[in-house]
């Protein structure tokens, strides 16, 4: 098997795991979403510490972390990224628990186009007319849903914006992706512990000797494993291929929302998704054409 084939398998598996996460969160939706988020941070930290010890990467982790902390701007960027991804995790868990899986799916379809806008404003990147049309189509889809349903899809936009900001903040951080998730969990650990203490003091905690709490213990592995698979895949295949594979996740979410969770898929949703799919197709096609020109 070639390295590119391995990369495709790793990347596809990562997006498939992310795509079926709503099923996992649905299994434990009797637990408060904020408590789930706090435990996700704690068990992700525990899993990453265990993994780094097993892989004998503690020395490398220490060296890279010390190097990072010598650069205040990078440390601040990673701390901010940790807060942003925690917000993204919490919002996604809340959306699943409250029957908004379709809006979550829409958010992750919008995400690549949201990243384009951030690149324009913060990285001073320039885009082709085709890419601008792609952005306009996505914006038209969001506006159409807003005016048709009378409700702005704030869950979708917040999920897309938070993940795009997270990607922007992580863009120039010079540390291995495996170590960043451990540090991000360390940065957000105090907030997680405070949240758990508050929920227990207010008798709102559901974590204890029950099946849901046992299931929640695996949230750390389900957070870290797809990230590791994605990192392994991204190193072996072109960015244009990653761009296509990333739609596996939101597509699986959309299918679950309609066929498993019985969320309504109306004509308004069809028009909205169609506009965004058209924009994504244009954007992805332009990237593939540009990549082929460069390789020639």
Q: What would you note in describing this structure?
A:
Pfam families: EamA (PF00892). Residues 6-146 form the EamA domain. It is a multi-pass membrane protein. Keywords: Cell membrane, Membrane, Transmembrane, Transmembrane helix, Transport. It is found in: Cell membrane. This protein has 296 residues and is an all-alpha fold. It has one domain (3-125, 154-261). The protein contains 13 helices and no strands. Helix 4 (72-97) crosses helix 8 (177-201) and helix 5 (101-122) crosses helix 13 (267-295). The longest helix is centred in the C-terminal third of the chain and has 29 residues, at 267-295. The two termini are 25 Å apart. 38% of the residues are buried. The model has no long low-confidence stretch (mean pLDDT 88).
Arithmetic mean pLDDT: 88
Q: Rg to the nearest angstrom?
A: 20 Å
What global shape is seen?
globular
Q: Which structural category fits the helices and strands?
A: mainly alpha
By DSSP (H or I, 4+ residues per run), the number of helices equals: 13
How many structural units, i.e. domains? 1
Q: Give the strand content.
A: under 5%
Helix content: over 70%
- First CA to last CA: what distance? 25 Å
Note the main sheet.
none
How many β-strand runs? 0
Ranges where pLDDT stays below 50 over 5 or more residues in a row are none
The H/E string reads HHHHHHHHHHHHH
């Amino acid at each position: 098997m070639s390295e590119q084939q391995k990369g495709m398998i790793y990347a596809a598996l990562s997006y498939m795991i992310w795509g079926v996460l709503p099923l996992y969160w649905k299994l434990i939706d009797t637990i408060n979403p904020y408590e789930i988020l706090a435990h996700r941070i704690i068990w992700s930290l525990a899993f990453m510490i265990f993994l780094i010890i097993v892989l004998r990467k503690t020395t490398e982790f220490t060296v890279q972390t010390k190097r990072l902390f010598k650069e205040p701007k990078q440390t601040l960027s990673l701390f901010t990224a940790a807060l942003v991804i925690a917000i993204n995790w919490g919002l996604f868990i809340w959306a699943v628990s409250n029957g908004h899986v379709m809006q979550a799916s829409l958010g992750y379809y919008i995400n690549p186009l949201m990243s384009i806008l951030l690149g324009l404003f913060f990285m001073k990147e320039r885009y082709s007319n085709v890419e601008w049309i792609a952005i306009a189509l996505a914006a038209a889809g969001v506006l159409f849903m807003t005016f048709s349903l009378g409700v702005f899809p704030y869950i979708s936009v917040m999920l897309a914006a938070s993940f795009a900001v997270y990607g922007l903040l992580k863009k120039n951080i010079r540390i291995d992706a495996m170590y960043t998730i451990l540090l991000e969990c360390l940065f957000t650990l105090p907030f997680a512990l405070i949240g758990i203490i508050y929920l227990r003091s207010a008798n709102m905690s559901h974590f204890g000797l029950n099946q849901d709490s046992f299931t929640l213990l695996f949230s750390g592995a389900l957070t870290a494993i797809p990230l590791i698979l994605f990192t392994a895949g991204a190193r072996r295949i072109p960015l244009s291929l990653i761009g296509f594979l990333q739609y596996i996740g939101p597509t699986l979410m959309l299918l679950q929302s309609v066929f498993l969770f019985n969320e309504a898929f109306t004509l308004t949703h069809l028009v909205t998704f169609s506009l965004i799919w058209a924009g994504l197709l244009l954007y992805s096609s332009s990237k593939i054409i540009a990549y082929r020109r460069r390789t020639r």
